[in-house]
Structures are given as structure tokens and as C-alpha cells.
Amino acid sequence: MKEIVSDLMRLASPEKAAILSRFFRTGKGEYGEGDIFLGITAPQQRKVAIKYRAASFDDLQQLLASNIHEYRLVALFILTEKYDKSDKTGRKDCVDFFLQNLARVNSWDLVDLSSGRILGDYLLDRDKRILYRLAVSENLWERRISIISTFSFIRKDRFDDTLKIAGILLNDRHDLIHKAVGWMLREIGKRDLAVEESFLKSHCRTMPRTMLRYAIERFDEKKRRFYLGK
């Protein structure tokens, strides 16, 4: 733990920290309120994670308990490294640890860079009820985890759960969910455009505008106008 922290502190940049604090909305009443940034890039953090991928779950627990954003992200990068390198039992341990610490996976980048690679991958051929429970959570980040975790399914051309969870989240109140759902719909479209368009034709009139715009981002101008005009 001390070595990880020392390496991160050496990489800290006050100038970048100020920019990231604004970008991740850390002001009073904003979604990132209370988060502290050191100003370290994601590639730099990945290098630290690879160096310390043998860190214990106790070390990761301590990092996740911190309000320093980079500590939590490095912990999740290490966890994904552990998951990738583990056998069946080790992967379950990683998933259990992830689920026990959902409250600390509390920013959109933390969700996006971990949930698909850990939880989503693990659930590929397992019961997925937990994702549906997360989809109706009062917690913003748990709802985002529910849809982003399905990215692993999309990569295997399995779209049903993504579409069902997208349906649950259609009326969500937060734009970070709108963006996440639109992104996953767009990823489906990259693999099977007909599936994405079938969903859009059923829901484009009622889905939030941001969600729709993200979903149709790769469409040509004529098709974008068609959906936006419906």
C-alpha cells in the first residue's frame, strides 16, 4: 500500500488535478462532490497497477476507502489485472470483492473501466439477476454499472440483456445514465445495426434526447435526422 501511494504521489500534477476536478464535477452539489484528484493520467495509473498487480485485497480495500480518485482507480485497475490472471476460484473472489465495494465505484470512469471487465465478464454464462437489481437502484453509479457491465455481452453478440436493461433505464433522470445507455446501444449497432434500429424505432420518441444522440452518433446525416425528427 505505501509503495503504491508513493509511486502515485510522485506522478501527481497540481495543474492536471485542477482540470480534472472541474471535468469530473467535484463542486458542491455536483455528482463528484468530495472527490480529490492528484492529476495523474489513466495510462500512468495502469502502469502503476501492472507493477503492483500482486497487491492484496487488504491493500485494495485501503485504496478504495480513500477520497483520492486515483487511489480508487488504481485499485480497480489492479483488480482487473487480478481477475484476468486468475483461475475460476480467483475470479469469483475478485467479483465478490468488487460487489462488496460497489459504494466506492462511484464515478463514471471507475464504472466504465472496471464493471464490464470484471462483473460483466463473470456473468457471461451465469445468472444475471444482479444487473437487474442494480438497474433499479437509487444509486446513480449502480445503475450505470448495470448497463456498462453488459458491454462484455455485446462483444459476444449477446444483446438481450443490454436491451432489457436499456428499457428499464429509458426514463432515468440522470444524463450520465442517458449517455451510458446510448453508448451501449451504439455498440450493439456496430455489430448488428438491425437490432439497434429495432430498439430505436420502438423507443426513439420517448427516450431522452441525449440517449438518442449517443445511440445514433455513427449514423449518416440523413438517418440521424430521421430519428431526431420522429
Give a description of the structure.
The longest helix is centred in the middle third of the chain and has 17 residues, at 69-85. By secondary structure, the chain is an all-alpha fold. Helix content is 67%, strand content 0%. It has helices at 2-11, 14-23, 42-51, 57-64, 69-85, 88-100, 108-112, 116-122, 129-135, 140-148, 151-154, 160-168, 175-191, 193-203, 209-215, 221-229. It contains 16 helices and no strands. The radius of gyration is 18 Å and the shape is globular.
For this entry, give a set of tags.
230 residues; mainly alpha; 67% helix
Brief overview, please?
This protein has helices spanning 2-11, 14-23, 42-51, 57-64, 69-85, 88-100, 108-112, 116-122, 129-135, 140-148, 151-154, 160-168, 175-191, 193-203, 209-215, 221-229.
Compile the SSE list and pairings.
Elements: H1 2-11, H2 14-23, H3 42-51, H4 57-64, H5 69-85, H6 88-100, H7 108-112, H8 116-122, H9 129-135, H10 140-148, H11 151-154, H12 160-168, H13 175-191, H14 193-203, H15 209-215, H16 221-229
Helix pairs in contact: 1-3, 3-5, 4-5, 5-6, 9-10, 10-13, 13-14, 13-15
